[in-house]
Design a protein that fits this description.
The structure holds 3 protein chains of 3 kinds. Chain A is 61% helix and 6% strand. Chain A is mainly α. In chain A, strands 1-2 form a two-stranded antiparallel ribbon. The two termini of chain A are 35 Å apart. By secondary structure, chain C is an alpha+beta fold. Classes of the chains: A mainly alpha, B alpha/beta, C alpha+beta. Chain B: InterPro entries: AAA+_ATPase, ABC_transporter-like_ATP-bd, ABC_Transporter_VariousFunc, P-loop_NTPase.
């Protein structure tokens, strides 16, 4: 069983913090398929958060196919995240390093790059949602 | 989705002044709603109307489809914790639990005593001798022991220290999780409620100013930072209305309500917290967000 | 609700019981002694002999009863201030049981706790007011029975049960006063919502209504009667027959009052005036033919009628106040 923590200063939505913690635990192999996630009431009580927020996080994980809810019993891990993404990450990281060298060659310093990445990231993801 | 609380043109007058007027709102079942507003905005009046302690002078109020003041049968289905958690000071916790049992058809004494035991509330002491935080916990346990479908709390954490406040909210969230109880709690502080509430009602000057799901409201509102903008200049595409703006000679900062994505690269966007949002509206009584004929916003998460 | 009422008021019940014991400790010994002396001194027999005769013959031995009565009062008259103390008891019940009943709930805010449980406010008020009212009725009845017994010798010696503060301590009126005091307290509590102002209102209201009824209304519950008798006569009115003498005066043959608040009795054989004054006035000019004494009075036989009327007034006032209090609980307090 894992225990959730919230970062009070994080701008990330509460339910997303829960989702990220489950994903992280899955990546790190702290929990495996078959393990149970803490009950909604327990999480809500321990963190003093709205039970609907916990439900929302669990639904999101369910949509991602990582967990499944058994009514009246609890929510259980169905899939591990260790493995394939690691390989993908290596390739992407290689590409990113190449792009960063290009950016520096074009005269951008570190903060310029962060600003550019942030705006592009937001625009790209919002477009994606708007289309969906 | 069923509605737990519905008011139409609801008003209450004390002498010549309206404590609440033209209040029209719907609270869907299963929500934890924050009723926010400055002192004197009508929060307590609205809660008292909803539990039948007051009768309306205008409009109607319906709770679980029934009229509160005229229908005492409704009292068994709702829980209410009044401001400052009033309890009989010379009663002990077992006395209060027995009182609940005698006065209610539906009463889960074990549920309440188990909760209070876990919190290490002394049972042999008169509640007048307990700390403010402990009294608030006792009052909450009494309300939860009714296993209510709808729980209303009037400023439950206002007088508590930060630790007691957190413990109270923990108990509240744990207490309503199992039954999916709908909660309406009033507060003049928003920061504490940001993670607790998923629905927001802002009352100001006796009227409803903002109403809606917290997710929708946060998704709809953004802070835009960009180059100095002339007052007459049109807002960037995607902005429905500007709630607040401030300018320096080079830069403009806008708090806006959006009706689409802001794609203009001249503007940097920032999400804002529930507290920022509430404060922005409270600072400008003329602004307001009420659900129109079409559903509010879009759900960015699905 | 019954358990709730008991739990909230058990302390007051304890105080009331202690109070009753204290009052009994005061009443029983003094009462027993008064009853003994009343019988042993022959006053009881004497009063039984003269009965409620309207006039008694003037002459040696005719004033035996008055003599004995005076002796009795000389001995026990100093107990009469106790009656004043007892007159306050209904007020105390109103102040300490009635006034806090709703006011304390509102002051503590607990009305919002108890009125949002599964019991309607109407039911809450009916049971609470009903139980407290019944309790007060029981207290008042016990106390009235005790006091009526205690005061009986003083009735005899005073000659009338109508005397102010004597009439009020016996029969059934204390029950009316108690119910009125409690109802007034409850109602005042629903208006002020605070215990202290409710108690103050109860105090002032109770005293005002009591004084008004006792001083202004009571002498006129029934048409007053007149009794005339010559200043010079073989007989004089029986002072101990229980009549309530409201006014006395001396009038001449043409009906003009020559002296107020006085009575005069001249023996026919001795022309020198011997005033039996109530109270003693300046020495009158004489016992001329045609002068007569006038008494305006309520007959002693009307005692129970007056008791019933006065109790009725206070019970009716109590009922109105309770109805208003229930209305305020249901509609006006939040």
């Amino acid at each position: 069983m894992i225990e959730f923590h919230l970062d009070g200063h994080s701008k990330v939505a509460t339910y997303m913090q829960l989702v990220q913690q489950v994903r992280q635990s899955l990546r790190l192999g702290l929990i495996d398929p078959g393990d149970q996630l803490p009950r909604v009431r327990e999480v809500a009580e321990a963190l003093a958060i709205n039970p609907n927020t916990v439900l929302k996080a669990y639904r999101q994980l369910e949509l991602e196919g990582l967990v499944s809810a058994r009514p009246g019993v609890g929510t259980f891990v169905t899939r591990s995240l260790a493995g394939p993404s690691l390989a993908n990450q290596a390739a992407l990281r290689h590409d990113l390093i190449g792009w960063l060298s290009q950016a520096r060659a074009a005269g951008l310093d570190q903060e310029d790059i962060v600003a550019l990445v942030e705006t592009t990231l937001r625009a790209t993801f919002q477009e994606g949602i708007a289309e969906a | 989705m069923s509605t737990v609380l519905e008011t139409t043109g609801l008003g209450k007058r004390y002498g010549g002044t309206w404590a609440l007027r033209d209040c029209t709102l719907r609270l869907p079942a299963g929500r934890v709603a924050a009723l926010v507003g400055p002192n004197g905005a009508g929060k307590t009046t609205l809660l008292h109307l909803a539990v039948g302690l007051l009768r309306p002078d205008a409009g109607t109020v319906q709770v679980l489809g029934r009229t509160p003041a005229a229908d005492s049968g409704l009292l068994t289905r709702i829980g209410f914790v009044a401001q400052d958690s009033p309890l009989y000071p010379d009663f002990t916790v077992p006395d209060l639990l027995k009182m609940g049992q005698k006065l209610n058809q539906r009463w889960d004494s074990e549920f309440a005593s188990a909760r209070l035991e876990r919190l290490r509330i002394p049972f042999d002491r008169k509640v007048g001798k307990l700390s403010g935080g402990q009294r608030a916990q006792v009052a909450l346990a009494l309300a939860l022991a009714k296993r209510p479908e709808f729980l209303l709390l009037d400023e439950p954490v206002a007088s508590l220290d930060p630790l007691a406040r957190r413990e109270f909210l923990q108990a509240l969230m744990g207490g309503v999780a199992d039954d999916g109880t709908t909660v309406l709690l009033s507060s003049h502080l928003v920061a504490d409620l940001e993670r607790v509430c998923d629905y927001l009602i802002v009352l100001q000057e006796s009227r409803v100013q903002v109403l809606g799901s917290v997710d929708d409201l946060l998704a709809e509102h953004q802070v835009l930072i960009g180059p100095r903008r002339a007052a007459a200049q049109a807002s960037p595409a995607g902005v429905a209305s500007v709630i607040r703006e401030s300018h320096t000679d080079k830069q403009s900062t806008l708090l806006v309500r959006t009706n689409g994505p802001i794609l203009d690269p001249a503007w940097t966007t920032r999400d804002l917290s529930l507290e920022d949002l509430v404060l922005a509206y409270l600072a400008d009584p003329s602004a307001g967000v009420l659900p129109g004929p079409s559903p509010l916003g879009m759900d960015l998460t699905s | 609700m019954i358990w709730m009422t008991w739990r909230q008021h058990r302390q007051q019940v304890l105080f009331v019981l202690i109070g009753m014991v204290a009052v009994s400790a005061l009443i029983l010994p003094t009462g027993l002694r008064m009853h003994d002396v009343f019988t042993d001194s022959g006053l009881a027999d004497c009063l039984r002999r003269t009965g409620d005769a309207e006039f008694v013959t003037v002459g040696p031995g005719s004033n035996d009863c008055a003599e004995l009565a005076n002796q009795f009062l000389a001995r026990f008259g100093n107990l009469q201030p106790l009656a004043v103390l007892f007159a306050v008891l209904p007020l105390l019940v109103g102040l300490f049981l009635g006034a806090p009943l709703v006011a304390r709930e509102v002051e503590l805010g607990t009305h919002r706790l108890v009125w949002t449980q599964g019991v309607s406010r109407l039911r809450w008020a009916m049971i609470k007011f009903g139980l407290i009212g019944t309790g007060c009725l029981a207290i008042a009845t016990a106390y009235t029975l005790l006091l009526s017994w205690w005061i009986r010798p003083l009735n005899g010696a005073n000659g009338s049960r109508f005397t102010v503060l004597i009439f009020d301590q016996q029969g059934i009126v204390p029950i009316g006063y108690t119910l009125f005091a409690v109802a007034l307290g409850i109602f005042a509590g629903t208006v002020s919502g605070k215990v202290m102002p409710a108690m103050a209102t109860t105090l002032v209201g109770f005293l005002a209504v009591r004084l008004l009824v006792a001083g202004v209304a009571r002498p006129h519950f029934q048409a007053q009667r007149e009794r005339k008798f010559p200043v010079t006569s073989q007989v004089e009115p029986n002072q101990l027959n229980g009549d309530w003498i409201i006014h006395v005066g001396i009038y001449n043959s043409s009906g003009v009052q020559v002296a107020a608040n006085q009575q005069r009795s001249c023996r026919p054989e001795s022309p020198s005036p011997s005033p039996s004054a109530t109270p003693a006035g300046p020495t009158p000019e004489g016992c001329e033919e045609g002068l007569y004494n006038l008494q305006i009075y309520q007959p002693g036989s009307r005692f129970w009628l007056f008791q019933t009327i006065e109790t009725g007034i206070f019970v009716a006032l109590a009922a109105v106040l309770v109805i208003l209090a229930v209305y305020r609980v249901r509609r006006r307090i939040s």
